[in-house]
Amino acid sequence: GIQVEQSPPDLILQEGANSTLRCNFSDSVNNLQWFHQNPWGQLINLFYIPSGTKQNGRLSATTVATERYSLLYISSSQTTDSGVYFCAVEYIGANNLFFGTGTRLTVIP
Amino acid sequence: SAVISQKPSRDICQRGTSLTIQCQVDSQVTMMFWYRQQPGQSLTLIATANQGSEATYESGFVIDKFPISRPNLTFSTLTVSNMSPEDSSIYLCSVVVQGAGEQYFGPGTRLTVT
Fold first, then answer.
1. Nearest CA among A35, A23, A38 for reference residue A82
2. Disulfide: which of A21, A45, B76, B80 matches B49 by Cβ 3.0-4.6 Å?
3. Euclidean distance between CA atoms A21 and B77, whole angstroms
4. What is the domain partition of chain A in residue ranges?
């Protein structure tokens, strides 16, 4: 069946540290997005990245579609980076996103 | 991008009652979706809201429990019917903007059923 697995499930970082979050998916995709859900529940788009690499400030993402994984890099983490990071994929033949299990990030000062 | 508003932002309801959640978008969108996020869990798609026709429901969700309307390209409602405590969740409206691949989410409606 459809699987989108994220690792690690939980991550605690000291402010200023770097981290890598991983998303593995089980089939070919049309669409892959990374979201940050802040402590108030709002989902914020980080990247639309079905393939390749993108950067936005301290964040960057890489998707290797042929190997069915995506990575989200957070550099120089800040306390405002805390929250849950979700990877979501749209499989070929579908028209909606299927969400991964999420990574809960806590950045401590 | 799209600016999405949802009403109400939160509510506390009694068992057996129904609540209708509204979703309004500031631009015409191709697709509108409704998701549920149970406490501490990931997001699960309830249904795709189709303009002018019946919604398309995912496995485990039925129209009698979650009736959905979408009268035009910028507005949709989700009703949670005959509520039980298990319906306590965040309900999120989501859209895909015309000509783009990204999906955007509203702020969510936090529902507690007592």
1. A38
2. B76
3. 35
4. 4-108
The CATH class for the domain spanning A4-108 reads: mainly beta
From chain B, the residues in CB contact with A42 under 8 A are: 105, 107-108
- Stretch 18-57 of chain A: residues touching chain B, C-beta under 8 Å: 30-31, 33, 35, 41-43, 45, 48, 50
| CATH T-level assignment (fold) for domain B19-102 | Immunoglobulin-like (2.60.40)
Q: How far apart are CA B31 and CA B29, in angstroms?
A: 6
| Cβ distance of A97 and B103 shorter than 8 Å | yes
Of A1-5, A70-74, A104-108, B43-47, the poorest mean pLDDT is in A1-5
CB-based burial of residue B45 (10 Å sphere; 0-12 exposed, 13-18 middle, 19+ buried)? buried
Examine the pLDDT at B86 and tell me if it is beyond 90: yes
pLDDT tens for each residue of A84-107: 999 999 988 888 899 999 999 999
pLDDT confidence of residue A1: 63
* Spatial separation of the C-alpha atoms in residues A60 and A46, rounded to whole Å: 9
Residues A96, B42: C-beta atoms closer than 8 Å: no
- Give chain A's mean pLDDT: 94
- Sorted by where each begins, the domain ranges of chain B are 19-102
